Amino acid sequence: MEPAASDAVRCAIDTVDIARIERLLRETPAAALTDFFAASELADAGEGPGRAASLAARFAAKEACLKLFPRETGLAQIVPADFTVAKDGFGAPQIVPGANARAAMDRHRVDDIAVSLSHSATTASAVALARPRATRVPLAGRLLWRFAPIRRDVIVDNLRRVFGAHLPHAEIERLAQAHYAHLARLAGEFLRYRWLSATRRRALVRVEGVEHFTQAWEAKRGILVLTGHFGNFEVATLAGLAQFPQVHGHIHFVRRPIKPRWLDALVHRRMRRAGFGTIGKRGSLDEVLALLARGDAVVVPFDQHAQAPDGIEVEFFGHPAGTFRSLAIIALATGAPVVPAASWREPDGTHVLRFEPPLPPVACDDPGEEIRRTTRVYNAALERLVLRHPEQWWWVHRRWKPVRRRARPAATGG
Fold first, then answer.
1. What pTM, to 2 d.p., does this model score?
2. Does residue 367 sit in helix, strand or coil?
3. CB within 8 Å of 254: residues ≥ 6 apart
4. Residue 1 pLDDT more than 50?
5. Phi, psi (deg, nearest 5) at residue 26
6. What is the average per-residue pLDDT within 355-371?
7. CATH number of the CATH domain containing 71
8. Does residue 414 have a pLDDT over 50?
9. Between helices 152-163 and 169-193, what is the axis angle to 10°?
10. CATH number of the domain where residue 365 is located
11. Is 397 inside a domain boundary?
12. Domain housing 182
């Protein structure tokens, strides 16, 4: 089946008076110009008489990009600095999105933004073209959608929560079908993995962002790895981390037992055989603290629903979601860096394990609010990871169930 585009091609245009940028250059300290332009953009513009015109064209491109996403722009979720105008190998302009811009593009299923710049003696203009991302739906996904729609209502409802304001219903159905195809492939990989040689397993996985994990590891304060149910996490993690023998025996996974028991036992044995420890979700605080104190890494799946007392309602994709507060409590108490990680499967069947830069905690005078805001930072990081390859996240989980609050004891008369 041919891949379908997620939406119609969108186009935006903007014009900037060059005199406006000349005034900005005169009145703004050099260090503050980075609030508007990336260092690479300032360097590309040079220092000659064409500097203002060159930067004006770049600023027009940033403004045109914002017009492609009016909702995110109106909510100040993206600003001009989130888009950088760079040059490709032939000197043509191209848009390099920052993390916030990339998240907006992913939510709208925009693959990239093509841009064209021009200027006259007094004005500079730019045209931005959002090119939609194609969703490929393998045959297995279409068959499961039609004949074995396990938890289809849950999957579609979850996708609507995240993409309903941005994508047509037909595209949401294609994403659901692509997710079914991912689940089918996941089952096949799980069965085949145990028969692969160590060499073949290593060849299956590429590890990115190693420097983020390495720097945190060398700080010797322990590491909290923030992750979720992405891609084939077992294959990507076990085979990916096996490439780094120095961490053998020093990485531990917090995990909840799965059903049936034989499957849980099989997964547990595979992890132990690969040199990874496992920690139960309940009553594990002392064990986690001890492992961090000796400099080990603890991998925490953070994308499941959490009930009170450990669960608090924190926004996830714009909706309140019961979220574990324990990760923020541990990170704030120990100073251990929180490193996001995700995995996904490439079209050629290889897997990627990627580490992101550590997430800073949010300082606040109110301890409860500090935990809540830090937890929101963690959810925001997960959102960006989900949007990168949405068909490979675990949409079958009821992530947005209401948090049940514990009943307070009734007051007694005296």
1. 0.87
2. helix
3. 279, 280, 281, 284, 288, 298, 299, 300, 301
4. no
5. -70, -40
6. 92
7. 3.90.470.20
8. no
9. 120
10. 3.40.1130.10
11. no
12. 136-189
